[in-house]
Every structure is written in C-alpha cells, then in structure tokens.
Amino acid sequence: MAGKDLRIGVVGTGAIGRTHIERINNKLQGAKVVACADVNVDFGKSVAEKYDCKFYADGEEMIASDDIDAVIVTTIDPYHEQYVMAAIKAGKYVFCEKPLAPEAEACKRIVEAEVAGGKQLVQVGFMRRYDTGYRQLKAAIENRTYGEPLMLHCAHRNPAVDESYDTPMAVENSMIHEIDVLRWLLNEDYATAEVVFAKNTRRTHANLMDPQIMILTTKSGVRIDVEAFVNTGHCYDIKCEVVCEDAILNLPEPSNIEVCANATRGHAIHSDWSTRFVDAYNTEIQEWIDATKEGRVDGPTAWDGYVGQVTAKAASKARDEKKVVEITFDEMPEFYKK
Ligand SMILES: NC(=O)c1ccc[n+]([C@@H]2O[C@H](COP(=O)([O-])OP(=O)(O)OC[C@H]3O[C@@H](n4cnc5c(N)ncnc54)[C@H](O)[C@@H]3O)[C@@H](O)[C@H]2O)c1
Ligand SMILES: O[C@H]1[C@H](O)[C@@H](O)[C@H](O)[C@@H](O)[C@H]1O
Description:
With 338 residues, the protein is α/β, with parallel strands linked by helices. The chain is built from eleven helices and 15 strands. 1,2,3,4,5,6-hexahydroxy-cyclohexane binds next to helix 7. Its EC number is 1.1.1.18, 1.1.1.369. Involved in the oxidation of myo-inositol (MI) and D-chiro-inositol (DCI) to 2-keto-myo-inositol (2KMI or 2-inosose) and 1-keto-D-chiro-inositol (1KDCI), respectively.
C-alpha cells in the first residue's frame, strides 16, 4: 500500500490512546486514525470529534469493518486479549499496548491464534526498545567492549498511581517494561525471579505495597535488581546501570537546558511517561506504520509479550510465596524465529 495512508482504528481513547492518535495524525507520516472506539461513549465521541474520525461504541465492530486497515489497542489491560484476537480474526495488523494481556495464559492464547492463522500480525508496545539511551546501552554491551555484563541496578519511579493500581501491578504493569527491555538488552532469557519489599511509603494505599524490589537472574548468571516506587510524589525517574567487567554503563536521561535561578543550578526532569519517552513512542509508532505498510512485524512480538508475562507471573508468585521462583516457558515456535 505504498503511497496510500494506512487507515488506523484505535480502541481505547484514554491517556495513551489519545497521545497515539495525536502523534499519528499530527506528527508521523503515512497513516491516519480514521476511527476510534471506547466503552465510555460520551468521552469516546468527543475524541472522535476532536480528531475528525468515526466513532464506534463497539470495538470489535470497528476492527471487523472495512473502514480500517490496522488496529491499535489502548484499552485497560484486561481487554487487550479480546481486541487483539478480533484483529487476528480479521487478518489485520495490530499494535497492542503493554502488557499483551494481564494473564500469561491469555498471552499464550494470542500466540496460538497467531500461529494458527499462519501470519505474524501482532506487535506489543514495549517502547523502551526504541529509546535512544537504551539503544546506546545495547550497542555498548553487544560488542563486549567493556567485558561481560555482570549486574544491573535499575529503578522505575512514578510520581503517583490511583487506587486501582495494586501490589501485582508494580511487576505486571510497570516493571514489565524492565522485564522486556533488559531481556532485549542482554539478549538472553531469565532463570529466576524474586520480589522483596522495602518499608512502605506513607503515600500508598491498602492494596499496594510500595516500593518493591524485583530480583531477576538470567540463564548465564547476570543478576538484576529493579526498584519500583510508584508513589514518589515528585518524579518520573527511570534508571539502568549496567556493571560490566571493565566499565559501568548508565542509561542517559533525555537532555534539558541547565537553569540557574533562585540560587540554584539545575535541569528540569520529566514528571511522566508521556514526555520522558516521547521520542521513543514516535519512533516506535512510525516504525510500526512503515512495517505494517510493507506487510511485516519487526518490533516486539506476541512471543515477547508471552515471555514477559510468564516472567512477571513468576515474580508475582515469588512475592506471594516469599521465595525464589524458577522461570519456565514453552519452546519458542519456529514461526517467531527470524
Ligand atoms: N507503553 C507505555 O509506556 C504505556 C503508557 C501508558 C499506558 N500504557 C498502557 O496502555 C493501556 C491504557 O492505559 P491508559 O493510561 O491510557 O489508560 P486509561 O484508563 O487512561 O484509558 C483506557 C481507555 O480504555 C477504555 N476502555 C476500558 N475498557 C474498554 C473496553 N472493554 N472496550 C473499549 N474501551 C475500553 C476506557 O474507557 C479508557 O478510555 C494500558 O494497557 C497501559 O498499560 C502503556
Ligand atoms: O502504564 C504505565 C506506563 O507503562 C509507564 O510507562 C510506566 O512507567 C508506568 O509505571 C505504567 O503504570
């Protein structure tokens, strides 16, 4: 379909759904959001009006319609499976925000449906792989200039979360990013998972233990610790330090001007994901549009979504049972081997 705009339908017009519509219609090339759907009809209609696209109260109807060529799923996590399955059934390329689904079994059902359909159609929104800083880290690790990576110390800090965010979500919704990007960075699978708690912050609520520390080991023995602290009250802060045999490598921050005022010298920092990773989202969605128009998936696959969720579930089990849990998953189907 070279030359023609890819016609996209977005299901879920909430926070990230709207940022993707905005970037596709006003920043990126080669595509247009022509339809959107949401269970919140009034709100969804107002988004459709703002972006001059057709509104569907029923997301599955939109996915099956001839109005669109490809689908973006940005509903809350429990409904990802339903819409990704509908896209596979319709034979349409689908970009699904992370996690692919909250349950590993649901991710497996998606993998099985895609394999049975005989064509790769699904990409998962693990956008950290598109961040310039993580790409620089990967390049530095891959050629072993600094020897073997031995340990990684990471942090995933959010300013605040609402009361619907509970203890498992720290791993399954937030640290799922580290689970994916660190596996990609090191190019190997995980062996074990463990989760321990720090002292609880006063800013949390009854259903959320915050902060938490997830400890992963890889098959070759690299040890990783990730702090998730999602009610810092003051910052969005993503850290990744890779301790190699001969050097210590740190994830760079996107740069900001230095401001000297009020007897203080400093740099503004990001307060949420939408600005911290804006360049990564733009690259991710542009590359998805380009690959979709050429009839291929070249970003994180449904298999990556499945492996990520199996790992997250092992970490959740480790947390609940207060022990180290081994991570095991099925053999990767030939279908996903490039
Ligand atoms: N990659 C990232 O960094 C990133 C950032 C933010 C959110 N996300 C992911 O994107 C998804 C959405 O997050 P958000 O922050 O935009 O949430 P949100 O709550 O702001 O928006 C979700 C939208 O989905 C709609 N919705 C709920 N159930 C639906 C259903 N059954 N059918 C159709 N629409 C339905 C809601 O009405 C709402 O408009 C989540 O899966 C989240 O994990 C990813
Ligand atoms: O859904 C969001 C999003 O994925 C952000 O990138 C992450 O930092 C948050 O912790 C998570 O709740």
